[in-house]
Amino acid sequence: MVMRQRSWCLAVVAALFASLLVMTQGTAQAEVTHPRQEWLRQSTAGLFLHWGMFTAPKHLNCAEWERDVTGGGWTPDYWIDEARKLGASYVVLATFHSRLGYARPWPSKVPGSCATERDLLGELVRSGKAKGVKVILYMTDDPQWHSEQGVQMLDSAAYSAYRGEQVDLTTREGFGKYSYDLFFEVMKNYDDLAGFWIDNDNEYWERNKLYEQIRQLRPTWLLSNNNEDTPIMDTVSNEQKTGMVPSYDYPAATFTPMPRLSEACYKLPTTGDWWYDGGNHAVDTRLNTGRYITNAGSSIKSLMAETPMVNGRMPAQQEAYNNFMASWVPPIRESIQGVEGAGYLYGGMQPGFWNDGAHGVITINPRSGKQYVHVVSRPRADFVRLRDNGYRVTGVRDLRTGERMRFAQSAGHLTIQGVTQWDEYDTVFAVETAGQQGFYTGVKASATSSAAGFPASNLTDGSYESFWDAGAAQPVSISLDLGRRKEAAFLAVNQRESSPTHARVSFGRPEDSSRIKDYQVTASVDGRNWWHVRSGALPSARGTQFIDIGSQSARFLKLTVLNTWGGPQAPVYFKELRIDEIRVGHSYPRGLRSNALEAEDAVRSGSARSEFCAACSGTRQVTGLGGVTFRDVSVGAAGTYRLQLDMTSAEASSVSVSVNDAAPISVAVPRDRADVPAPAFVAVPLNAGRNTVKVSGSRLGLDRISVGGLPPSTYTPKTTLTVEPHGVQWVGPGQQSVKITARLRLDADDQIDDVSLAPVLPAGWTLTGAPATRASMRLAGLLEGTWTATSPADVGSVSIPVTASFELLGTGRKVSGTVPVRTRPADRVFVREAEDSANQFGSTGLTGCGACSGAEKVRNIGGSAGAAVTFPNVTVPETRSYRLFIQFTVNGPRSYFVSVNGGAAVEVKLDGIGNNTPYVAEIPVALNAGANTIRFGNDTAGAPDLDQIAIG
Questions:
Q1: Tens digits of per-residue pLDDT, 22-71?
Q2: Phi, psi (5° rounding) for residue 460?
Q3: 158-187 pLDDT, tens per residue?
Q4: What's the per-residue H, E or C state across 899-911?
Q5: CA angle, residues 43, 46, 52, in degrees to nearest 5
Q6: Side-chain-facing half-sphere of 492: CA atoms under 13 Å
Q7: With 0-12 CB in 10 A as exposed, 13-18 as middle and 19+ as buried, what is 657?
Q8: What is the three-class DSSP state of 187?
Q9: Please, which residues have CB within 8 angstroms of residue 677's CB and are 6 or more apart in sequence?
Q10: What is the pLDDT of residue 2?
Q11: pTM of the prediction?
């Protein structure tokens, strides 16, 4: 039987490989759409099951594990039924996993690791087929955990005998051969499997064209790759993203533009391993329902990981969550299955942050055009207001209750009014429209810079599979030609969703947003003489972004992108501006009037007058503000509220706000346009029932006011605080000085006031330099400062906080960074952390490491010339030979190649277990008096992670 199995594999491989050798590079391009993908496109979610020999209690004997699986009552129907409760269309089974003992849940004829006698995989596939749930098999490329439990889990001798050659399964090459054979065994025996979920690539697979052979042998099967966009794969899976704002907004951390299929792969339990570790870990319903909905709103499939026990049952809290989902999903099923994310290539209104703290996504049925507004975070008001993207709305109803909702539409916004029932996790409004209107067609685009193959003409071709690339130029200008002089009111910009929305680190890879930050818009009749239209900043957010430009009569519009959000710490994303489409809008859909507090409906005094304003709510504003009094500002309970004033102003100015005849409060209004309203906010006390609000000022216009609750005390607007130096600073004995720089950027579309930025020194230290301050900051605002901190004597061990404090609607908030300073050991003349901002990181990245010095290290060293860490200014007192102490972590044998001052690199072979325990190696180095440069790399293979270096 073994020989028949090998003969089948060898015959197939020989025939396929011969044909594949003549394939061109073009065959490796991604099949973005293909009929085999259709079932996954129609799905919402999958269930990811990590389950194997090391599921608690761990088994080190294959037969004993299988005995306990069967004896415990394992049944495939349970897993399939749990998947259906979650609204999942597929199950991914991860048993052949590097951290679970490399067990194969099928009776394999290929020796090398645990294989069951019972065909657990076959039973699961048959059960899934009977109940309409697909099954995909996880395959690992990684042999490094072969003896993690102190027992060798890979049998090289048995596999070598089977192959008739010596193969070491603990090496990537040997493991590649072994797992390669397993792919063919599975393809031969399981017709109804749906595909493979591959946890990163193996060089042996790629060299032997494994994926191309899978395509020919099993053309209907899907291939998914973890954390990498490999062209031949159908799906890109984005693993365990955290740190987003809101925390559930998983798509904000992904990098795969539609229509490429993508997954969000994440654990449902809040704590614990990907597999059952003996604990009944909690499941955060709010977090996970939010992930589920926001993923659907970006056409991302939620691959939810649960942790079955040895007998297959889920821990109690996971099972309870599944039962909750079984009743929560069905009432809104039409809004999350068979739909696409809206605000992107499939059309639809704008997702993201809305009014009064609301946040959510839109889904759209691409066949009927019906849209669904998912309010995941409810507003602190009884209405939801969002950009309509030119869709004329004809009806709105609450999908759960069936209630017909009141709505209004003007100035490019849809307002859903009088909402009294909010679902705790996702209030869904089904929105019917009469289609999209108000955009010009036939617009031609040109640009001052374009990357080869990505011309500016792609910006207006109507296709989201072609895009414009700025070719790393900044500033860069896009000119839009309307053909003749026409009225223009706004730009709608769909940027390429190929970067996350904020700076982050994923598996040691630095990431950042490539989206537009600061911009200018100018206009022209003849293409030679231009007038300024508007300057501002766009939020770093997904979906269509809008630039309202008032009423412009022009043939040409020019959008100049001054910079993007990403920083140089993430070179892959820095200045990498890409835009799918830009459209020019000439008018906004109008519908029923809202019950908003419109300025034109209030009592006017003095020179106040009503005038037309296309971009204003109700299409009118009040200018020449002698005074506008709102006599019926009603709230249900007395308290302090957020008052929003939507105002227009061609120059920086201010208005006075008086509530119930109390002393007026001054509100700053920044310079913008006289025909495009922008919000300003102030906290005001209101009585229960009716209140009077008077707004007065000059040289500006008032569109409307609205009242909502204050942000919760736990809310702090998203900022980026960059403090340098980064990493522990090791200094010599005696009095020392440290130069500190800090930069605060406001990333949220909020207004903060009384902003101050400065270090907070330990007792006895002195500071040179004053706090950096600004009266107020808005989106993309910057505040920077530089100081010198001087110690009184020996530093010892201190941490210097650098704190930005500010007010949000009258209440204090703060964010902080830290500069740790330590006196270096007496037997060291130099110490520096690998993560120190003085170093050069190439394509490597920083990652947390609790056991490491400074709790960080540098990973992803090696594999290419650019994946290296360089330490400049390694300063020593005299020219001679020194000892270089290298602190590192590694799992298995790896090497650095260490070069000093550009000299020949010396290989440093290292070994270790677990990659979480720091080790120290020592080598001799010849250094010059003064500054030296030391480089750590490995151009051809992965190197250990680097924690710290020291010279002694």
A1: 333 333 457 888 999 999 999 999 999 999 999 999 999 999 999 999 99
A2: -130, 25
A3: 999 999 999 999 999 999 999 999 999 999
A4: EECCCCCEEEEEC
A5: 160
A6: 31
A7: buried
A8: helix
A9: 411, 613, 615, 616, 617, 621, 646, 647, 648, 701, 703, 704
A10: 41
A11: 0.93
